Amino acid sequence: MADIGAQLWELWAPYHEVLAQKIMGPVNGYMIIMISIQLLIRLWPTSSSGKVEASHILVKDESKAKELREELVKADGDPALFAKLAEKHSTCPSGKKGGSLGSFAKGSMVPEFDKYCFDPETKVNQVSQPIKTQFGSHLVMVTKKPE
């Protein structure tokens, strides 16, 4: 519980300083509601234990994604190979980090991506089929799921 309090203060502090300096004038009910909404939006995903860690490879066309997936399946979804292929082929800046997106909560990514990452059937280190989004075709590997 103390952890949530610390997170809450961390999110509130920048607003507190602005309000304390009276840059915005007297605090009214509207401002309090808007700040509270912003705090809830920012705090909600971090208070959830339902975060996953994942990596992805983003390519422009689906045929390239299928080709890379075949290579990964032959290697039994080796995370080291996934990272190497992400560095070489991914058009996303995360490719430089082996495709790692770090940890994120449900609702943080585009719906197609979230659907795969938070599906109870998805196993750790399993390589997805190509997932099409407005950004291109993704191969996704969930590297950690909540216990």
TrEMBL record:
Entry GO MF terms: peptidyl-prolyl cis-trans isomerase activity
UniProt-listed InterPro entries: PPIase_dom_sf, PPIase_PpiC, PPIase_PpiC_CS, PpiC/parvulin_rotamase
Locations listed in the record: Cytoplasm
Gene3D superfamilies named in the record: 3.10.50.40
Entry EC no(s): 5.2.1.8
Listed SUPFAM superfamilies: FKBP-like (SSF54534)
Catalytic activity, as annotated: [protein]-peptidylproline (omega=180) = [protein]-peptidylproline (omega=0)
Domain PpiC: 49-144
Keyword Lipid biosynthesis tagged: no
Keyword list, A-Z: Cytoplasm, Isomerase, Rotamase
Keyword Magnesium annotated: no
Family label: Belongs to the PpiC/parvulin rotamase family.
Function text: PPIases accelerate the folding of proteins. It prefers amino acid residues with hydrophobic side chains like leucine and phenylalanine in the P1 position of the peptides substrates.
Protein name: Peptidyl-prolyl cis-trans isomerase
Protein's organism: Chytriomyces confervae
